[in-house]
């Protein structure tokens, strides 16, 4: 029964790279439609499991998760008309992640599960970026590569609406309106979420990493990124 609710086209399904505005998108869609926000992910990126419980057939949902394209996820996509895949240049996402894990609540509650050693926090921000490039960034590259391969499959590609953080940052109103249109939801009053710490949305230049990363970090990140820049339209720096 719960899986039938998940594949229902009455609900919205968003799969996204972490630190790409997921909570902001989910809150904005929920406030605009009255749909219930539901975080499907159980466990930690890049290969979490799905949590599908306590769903009501009488409710409508904004589902979100950071899952890789497992067989189960792809089966859901195949059974739906539309699924959103939301991405961000992983260099920008990594910088946002480096700020995110410095929050006290993240450090206290999640650092061990994320594999971050306590010595990490005593280092400089530059050394923290270096550590994250070797760990989190490589996970992001793996995740993006798996989804890039999915997008090369014609039958799956036509089921997926690819969205980008740059478009969200540039014009949030139009971005959310386009998502509503693709979801065939009309006659709604657009109500965007506040861009603040509660929505995990940092204001600023989405290419801030260009000014923060040193040349060695930029070169390593670009080398690891490879053809994903072309596949997803990320800038080359």
Range of helix content: 40-55%
- In N-to-C order, the SSE pattern is HEHEEEEHEHHHHEHHHHH
The biggest beta sheet is recorded as: 5 strands, parallel
Q: Tally the helices: what do you get?
A: 12
| Percent range for β-strand residues | 5-15%
Oligomer: single chain
In CATH, the homologous superfamily goes by the name: P-loop containing nucleotide triphosphate hydrolases
| CATH C-level | Alpha Beta
- Could you give the count of β-strands? 7
Biggest sheet strand order reads: 2-5-1-6-7
Choose one word for the global shape.
globular
Tell me what the CATH architecture is.
3-Layer(aba) Sandwich
Low-confidence parts, pLDDT < 50 over ≥5 residues? none
Itemize the secondary structure elements and their pairings.
Blueprint: H1 2-7, E1 12-16, H2 22-33, E2 36-39, E3 41-42, E4 49-50, E5 61-65, H3 71-79, E6 83-87, H4 90-100, H5 104-110, H6 125-151, H7 154-157, E7 160-164, H8 165-170, H9 172-182, H10 209-212, H11 215-225, H12 228-232
Parallel strand pairs: 1-5, 1-6, 2-5, 6-7
Antiparallel strand pairs: 3-4
């Amino acid at each position: 029964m719960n899986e039938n609710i998940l594949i229902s086209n009455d609900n919205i399904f968003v799969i996204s790279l972490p630190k790409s505005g997921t909570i902001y998108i989910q809150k904005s869609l929920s406030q605009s439609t009255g749909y219930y926000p539901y975080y499907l992910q159980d466990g930690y990126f890049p290969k979490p499991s799905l949590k599908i419980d306590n769903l009501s057939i009488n409710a409508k949902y904004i589902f979100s998760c950071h899952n890789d394209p497992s067989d189960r996820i792809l089966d859901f996509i195949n059974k739906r008309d539309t699924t959103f895949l939301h991405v961000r240049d992983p260099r920008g996402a990594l910088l946002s992640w480096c700020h995110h894990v410095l929050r006290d609540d993240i450090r206290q509650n999640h650092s061990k599960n994320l594999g971050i050693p306590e010595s990490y926090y005593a280092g400089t921000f530059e050394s923290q970026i270096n550590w994250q490039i070797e760990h989190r960034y490589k996970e992001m590259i793996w995740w993006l590569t798996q989804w890039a391969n999915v997008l090369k499959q014609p039958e799956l590609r036509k089921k997926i609406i690819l969205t980008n953080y740059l478009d969200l940052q540039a014009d949030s109103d139009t971005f959310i309106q386009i998502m509503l249109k693709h979801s065939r939801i009309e006659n709604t009053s657009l109500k965007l979420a506040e861009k603040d710490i509660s929505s995990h949305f940092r204001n600023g230049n989405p290419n801030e990493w260009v000014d923060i990363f040193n040349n060695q970090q930029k070169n390593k990140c670009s080398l690891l990124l490879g053809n994903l820049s072309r596949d997803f339209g990320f800038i080359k720096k």
